[in-house]
Automatic annotation (TrEMBL):
It comes from Methylocystis echinoides. Residues 1-30 are annotated as: Disordered. This is DUF1403 family protein. It comes from the Bacteria. Residues 1-16 have a biased composition (Low complexity).
Length: 354
């Protein structure tokens, strides 16, 4: 692995020559970005054999675990790295996977919003009322921002899905913590969650959330990562050994759910690892151009980009205290420098991200 260090700090300026406060606020945070190697071919799930699937899922999760622990080794060098030891872009990684999970869950609920519509609803609505699909997106956005403490996270996720009356968070937490390994913990806790609820798509979505929380708790991750719902859309879960009558996918009530969970996490971690490789490269580019930014509050805007899937100029202007025009110029400059992308493809109401 190669490490890109921030440029050396210059000598302190005398009080008489200190730049104005707005200029000093523009200085980007010092940070480090670790380049990630692609997932080895042998760790990619490609077989329906249950033993092989479990091995590959474990290997993939171990390598993904190294990514989540591959941040700054000492002090918290950037406010974007809220969790000590995680790379600065893991907030964006979690929120982008949350969007993919919500996209699948909207399809599961037969709602018509796709990922682009869900992103618009979340970032352009300003936190106001949203659609049923947007509500499910907010479930994933919420739980990836919470520490992986099972009781409180389970209660809040169940409450957002309207299932809090049926859920005994303490019992689910006990099921998750007493399993012998992370994959079994995810499978048993999600199956138990499904048994507690009346059959419904929201109950199944809650089971995916429970599985990810149980996995994160067992692996001692700072916050959960949306993985199981992302993998459930994969077509390989509808054929071969996993094929069900009518071509449906595995469900938490199935007898072979633990084996399906292992296979699904093997698929999910391949996608998550590839996304992390891409985000690490983009984050490295953003870090390298950040010293060129002179706009007021540019460092805080960079932190917003590290922390979320998308940022609008209006949100950045509100958070940092820029004018709308200055915020748009800052994002245009970052795009011109190749550090970020415009995500909406529109001429108006644009959104930007890694």
């Amino acid at each position: 692995m190669s490490v890109l260090d921030s440029p050396p700090t210059s000598a302190p300026l005398s009080p008489a020559r200190r730049p104005p406060r707005a200029r000093r606020d523009a200085a980007p945070p010092a940070t480090q970005v670790v380049e990630i190697q692609p997932l080895p071919r042998w760790a990619r799930t490609g077989s329906d054999d249950q033993t092989t699937a479990a091995f590959r899922a474990g290997a993939g999760l171990a390598l993904f675990d190294q990514i989540l622990r591959g941040g700054a080794p000492v002090a918290d060098v950037s406010r974007a790295a809220k969790d000590l030891g995680e790379p600065v872009y893991t907030g964006c990684l979690r929120q982008r996977l949350a969007l993919r999970a919500a996209d699948f869950c909207a399809t599961l609920c037969r709602l018509r919003e796709d990922a682009a519509a869900l992103r618009d609803a979340e970032h352009l609505a300003g936190g106001s009322e949203t659609s049923p699909a947007g509500q499910r997106h907010r479930v994933f956005r919420l739980y990836v921002s919470l520490p992986a403490r099972l009781d409180s996270a389970l209660s809040r996720a169940a409450g957002q899905l309207g299932l809090d009356e049926a859920i005994d968070a303490g019992a689910l937490a006990e099921v998750a913590t007493t399993a012998p390994d992370p994959l079994l913990s995810a499978a048993r806790a999600s199956a138990a969650a499904m048994r507690l609820c009346a059959p419904s798509t929201d109950a199944e979505i809650f089971a995916f959330v429970v599985a990810d929380l149980a996995l994160a708790n067992q692996l001692r991750w700072a916050r959960p990562v949306p993985l199981l719902a992302v993998a459930m859309a994969h077509p390989s879960l509808r054929r071969g050994a996993w094929a069900r009558e009518g071509g449906s996918r595995p469900r938490p009530s199935d007898a072979d759910w633990p084996a399906a969970v292992a296979f699904a996490y093997g698929l999910a971690v391949v996608e998550a690892h590839a996304l992390a490789v891409d985000l690490a490269r983009r984050a490295q580019m953003l870090v390298s151009v950040a010293p060129m930014l002179r706009a007021k509050g540019a460092g805080r805007v960079v932190e917003m980009l590290f922390a979320d899937d998308a940022v609008t100029p209006a949100a950045a202007a509100s958070r940092v205290g820029l004018s709308d025009r200055a915020a748009r110029r800052l994002f245009d400059r970052l795009v011109a420098l190749g550090a970020i992308r415009e995500l909406s493809g529109r001429e108006t109401f644009r959104m930007y991200g890694l």
